[in-house]
Write a structure and sequence with these properties.
Helix content is 24%, strand content 35%. It is an alpha/beta fold. The chain has a single domain (49-169), classed as Rossmann fold (3-Layer(aba) Sandwich), CATH 3.40.50.2020. Strands 5-6-4-3-7-8-9 form a seven-stranded mixed beta sheet, with helices on both faces.
């Protein structure tokens, strides 16, 4: 059982009116962190991905280790200007503005089953932008896996009909 009470809620961050769900409190608790990680591994195995895509920054807490556990490639998606090679880029809306993310043009092979992993599904903006980036690689399928979903923000609506798994919905 995952105890969501271990997630710290920070009011008015990064801007007034925003509730930030801080999962670093989970990282400080090895037993909880391992429990979440093992649950993510089990969920990912059911989806049988060939590539794990992790979103900066908090998706990086889980995605590389998950890819290593499954013995498949990890492809990072980072904020604009953080990747040193040729990239594809996508813009998206946040609760409090806009942003851009990028992926290397050689981040993964074409025609694979891709699992996009992030910590929290909120508005769906980042995840939908990530899916648009992944489409450059003509994937066979795209699935989503999140530790937590904030259902009141209706992020699922932006992700279309692709399978979405979350460990916790609040």
């Amino acid at each position: 059982m995952i105890d969501v009470n271990k997630v710290r809620i920070v009011e008015d961050f990064p801007e007034k009116g925003i509730k930030f769900y801080d999962i670093t409190t989970i990282l400080n608790d090895p037993e909880t962190f391992d429990g979440i990680f093992q649950t993510l591994v089990a969920a990912a195995r059911q989806l049988n991905p060939e590539v794990i895509v992790g979103l900066e920054a908090r998706g990086f807490y889980f995605a590389p280790a998950l890819a290593l556990e499954l013995k498949i490639p990890f492809a990072p998606i980072r904020k604009k200007g953080k990747l040193p090679y040729k990239t594809y880029s996508e813009s998206y809306a946040l609760e409090y503005g806009t942003a851009q993310i990028e992926i290397h043009q050689d981040a993964m092979p074409f025609g694979k089953r891709v699992l996009i992993l992030d910590d929290i599904l909120a508005t769906g903006g980042t995840a939908s932008a990530a899916a648009r980036l992944v489409e450059n690689f003509k994937p066979i399928s795209v699935n989503y896996l999140f530790f937590m979903e904030l259902t009141s923000l209706a992020g699922r609506k932006k992700l279309g009909n692709a399978p979405i798994r979350t460990l916790v919905s609040i």
